[in-house]
Amino acid sequence: MPFSAVSRFVHGRSSGLFLAVAMFVLAPLAAGASTLQDTAAPASPSSTPPPASASNPRLPVKNLQRVVVTGIRGSIEKSLQVKRQSNEIVEVVSAEDIGKLPDPSIADSLSRLSGLATQRGLDGQANQISIRGLSPDFTATLLNGHEQASTGENRGVEFNQYPAELINQVVVYKTPDASLLGQGLAGTVDMHTIKPLDFDGMKLAANLRGQRSSNGSLNPGSGVGDWGHRFSLSWIDQFFDHTLGIALGAAREDAPIQQRQYQAWWWSVDNGTAGIDQNWGGPHTPGMPDNVISQEGMQLRALSQDQVRDGVMGVLEWAPNDTYYSTLNLFYSRFDKRSYKNGLQWSSSPYDNVSYDNVGTVPLQPYPLVTSGTLMGIAPILQNGYNRERDYLFSADWSNQIHFGDGWVVSGDVAYSSARVKLLDAYTFTGLPGGALGDVQFTTPRDFGFPDFRTSFNPGDPASLVFTDPDNYSYNGRQEFDRQKDHLKSARLAISHPLGWIFSSVDAGIAWSDREKTKQADVFFAYLNGNGSDPGTYDHAFGVPINPSLLRGNTSLGYGGIGPIVDYDVLAALEQQFYLTQRNGAGDYDRNYSVREKVPVAYLKFNLDTTLGSIPLRGNAGVQVVRTEQSSQAFQTTGNDKVGTLTGGATYTKVLPSLNLVAELGDQQYLRFGFAKTLTRGRIDDEKVASSAAVSEVQNGPGAGQVLWSGSGGNPKLRPYIAVGTDLAWEKYFDDATYVGVDVFNKNILNYIYTRTVTDYDFSGYTNNNPLLTPSSNIGTFSTPQNGTGGRMQGVELEGALSGARLSPALAGFGVQANFALTNSTIPDSTISNIPGGPKSLPGLSRKTANLQVYYEAHGLALRIAERYRSSFTGEAVALFDQIGYTRIRANKETDLQASYEFPDGRLKGLSLLLQVSNLTNEPFESEQVSGLPNSVEVARPLEYDTWGRTVLLGVNYAL
């Protein structure tokens, strides 16, 4: 299949896209059905990764005489083996070899699975997973079957914290069973480290790769270049007659990120009365034609980030006899990110007394668009920033199983996971001295792309710039210190016993978890010292020159026409030429909170193994009873003042039934049915009790003269999201690497969370901010997350893999994998009221996702080219001041290339050379803002346009 088909595959209309994938996944049928080749023995319990339970013991592998297939095909075969044997509907990614997942990151590998998609972070890397169009907070993430703490603001785990070289397999549960703890509403991702007793001897693997970004070094003075490296080392061995296994691994990544950023602040229709944003539409701008859409401000920035991640893992596996089994897993990761962001920005709002000359427009509906001209009278702002984030992850679990007589099995485990984040964020402003203004000749794209700006001033000349407050922000810089901790402790005790009749066994268990997430944010405003004298003595009209000792050269904004701009040491500048004053406002105090959740669980699961007529039928039926005790402590603010401390919480119990059935139809065909009721607790920042509340006297209208409460904030009494999902799937396996499948699913969301204004909110326990006013009642209005009815999600997923040898011996070594998912939603409201894009824009929901991978592997040579696509969606992003926000992210596709050669024999046996190129086509990140005109016409205009370039990795692998 020519790779040009990839582009047509992902960019066709939905009907054509559906047809293309349908034709592909049905292609093996045309090659003639056959039974699965019996080249691999059925997987032993030690090689399948369902969650540990009493009915899933891990005992020493008795038969180690098997053919080990590695590489791309080996990864596909291992994944399909687990998928085929699972009682649940799952998707699987397996390592190609020890320490080698198919992609540089876990998130990249997961995004190639049917129904899954990633969202790129500010560093351009895939770091969070969306399953079936639900945001990352609806996905539970486990490591070796145990729930993981998160370094993110909420529940969604950032997968770039986990080195891909230390993960052996990842299983994504789309339908859970009753023994799967930590379930998510969308699904559950369970990462697995390696099991040393699965191997028949000592294994050693080492990987070394150099890494380069094609964007070059945008901030040379920062010390962040365009070269990085990755290194990993894994060692596995067994002792005492193969009863004790040890696996150790370490991985280090030093990855430079070079990002070119361009953002349009907002857009307006210049006719004196109306604006695209209903809050805009001001006076006529001199020189601007009437009834045209124009950009009202911009920022052009260059980001250089150095990411250093160190990870280590250890596994101790002990199986001294057929009675007792024990395993200890340890994982630690440290992520150190240093970011330097320098740029130029200005406002071109008519309220800032700017004017235009020689304006050029292009046709656009409903009004022409301004794309060129001269902008006069701007106050340029140069903002230089520094960000340092340190993340620490630790995870430990110890599991034990004892096998008694008559099939009785007792198992127990304890686990601990913690995540800590330390963040420093700082920036300062420079501008023209004496409040001078400048002119700009501009050419901006009609849609997305970088602009071309030519300024009348030189932003690269430090002698022409001063520290000042160019746009009257009332401060000269800002510094923020954030601390976040997430601790999760858990334990489980389970028992299993064989049964007769249609059930092979029964599992019963109790479990307990205790999670506490705390966050602290302290904000300081920076003010100029003058020439090192007392605060406030500098000439406000002129500003303060930059100390030459702070200069670090120039930052390049040539991709936006600007050329070089001044770069200096921000932290040193804050120490030498500024003083800091703590200025936490309501939005900052709002991020100082703790949320705690204690969750006891009991479950019962019957494992099914029978026949329906002549059709073998297996699966499970069970129920979980989940009790939640949640509590929160945070601040009450009035305006920007902290006036009190609040506490609150709730307790509730939910019953979650589940059913999984697998009918083996013969000729390696499987018909699967899954049913489950699942829950996800509210977002952490929705459950916090932090509130801004005050009493005030009603001046006019109904209730005039009364003193009433009003406010907004979180809701510690939230009940969880609840959904009932059903799946019907069909799979057909032709050989170890060839299959087709289709899954139709429906998810009824019974309980959803919306932001609403409550008119009968009880303010008992709140502090009266004004003792001179006595409230008429403790009842008032409060805007807060509330539970409400949900809606429905429905979708279809097509997937398949084809080994070229099935079509012709001449195609041996070639192979293709593809999948396509179409998801529709009828959810009536958005989760948060400020999500753009209309009432059905559920965060993270891409209506269409697709993947296509073409590979060749033979005679030591392996080539793979893969492309993934997701349609537009509303995504969660870190907005201004490190707070979470939402934006509409446009459709995107990413293409990756991998090539390797492994020396088959001789002195170089075990050595392989590797080339990987991520984001081969330099796909940009594009987001847009959507607003409505007064005549109800909706207009979408570009918001963000960023590029990271392509990343090239070249290295060697060695396996012994």
From TrEMBL:
GO terms for cellular component: cell outer membrane. It is found in: Cell outer membrane. Pfam families: Plug. Residues 39-60 are annotated as: Disordered. The keyword Signal applies. CDD domains: ligand_gated_channel. Residues 83-188 form the TonB-dependent receptor plug domain. InterPro entries: Beta-barrel_TonB_sf, Plug_dom, Plug_dom_sf, TonB_rcpt_bac. Residues 1-33 form the signal peptide. It comes from the Bacteria. Keywords: Cell outer membrane, Membrane, Receptor, Signal. This is TonB-dependent receptor. It comes from Rhodanobacter lindaniclasticus.
